[in-house]
Amino acid sequence: MVQVCLNGSRGAADGAAIPLSPEALAEEAARAVAAGATDVHVHPKTPCGRDTLSPRVVAATLEAIRARVAVPVGVTTGAWAEPDPAARLARVHGWTVLPDHASVNWHEPGAEELAAALLERGVGVEAGIWSGTDGAARFTRSPLAPKVLRVLAEITDPDPGTAPRTARALLSALAARHVAPDGPRILLHGENAATWPVLRLAAHLGLATRIGLEDTLTLPNGRRAASNAELVRASLTEYADAARDAGR
Prior knowledge:
Elements: E1 2-5, H1 22-35, E2 39-42, H2 55-66, E3 73-76, H3 85-93, E4 101-105, H4 111-120, E5 124-130, H5 135-140, E6 150-154, H6 163-176, E7 185-189, H7 195-205, E8 209-211, H8 228-246
Parallel strand pairs: 1-2, 1-8, 2-3, 3-4, 4-5, 5-6, 6-7
C-alpha cells in the first residue's frame, strides 16, 4: 500500500504545486491514483489556506475527491486545525460527509475521545504515533488500540542519516507492546529530508508507506517535485528497488 498525502499543513508559500481547494485536491488525487497510489490522505483547507475540520469544508473536499477516485480517502484531525479538544470533538460530531478514515495523533490532548467518536461514526482510525513523543506508550495502553484501522509510525527525526535508526526504535517499541505483527497494520513514513530513507526502510521491512507533498517537496535525486503523481511514481520505483535489495 502506498498512500498519497496530498498537501498536509503546507500552503501557498510552499509553491504552486500544493493543492489547496477541493477542485485542486481532486485533480491531484486523480493523477496520484492513476500513478499508483492506493489511498488518499488530505488536509481540507479554508479559502485562505488554513487546515480546518469544518463540516462544510470537509464535505466539499471529500465530495470533490470521491467524484474523481474510487480509493479510500482520509483526513487529518491534527490539533493545529482545532487546538481545543472539545471543539475538535464537536467538529467531528458535526461532519455531514464522513471520510473513510481519519488520522488521530495519539500524543495530542483528547486523542482517545476523538478516536472513540470516529469509531462510533464508522470512520476508520489511523493512529498517528510520532517519534519523540509519548504516543506509543499512550496508544498501547489504550483499549482502542485493537480497533484502529492502522498505525501511522511517523518519524519526525529530520536527519536522513539517523531517521532510519529512529524508525527502528519506534517500531521496536510498538512491537514490544504487541502492536505488530498481530495488531493493526503499520504504515511507516518520514518527512522532509528523511522521507526517502524511511520509505526505503519501509520497503526493506515490507511495511505500508506513504508519499506526497505533505511529506516532501523533492524527489530522491533532490529535484523539486512537480506534483504528487511524480512523487508517487518515484516512490514505487524506490520501494521496488529497496524491496528487491532486501531479498538478496
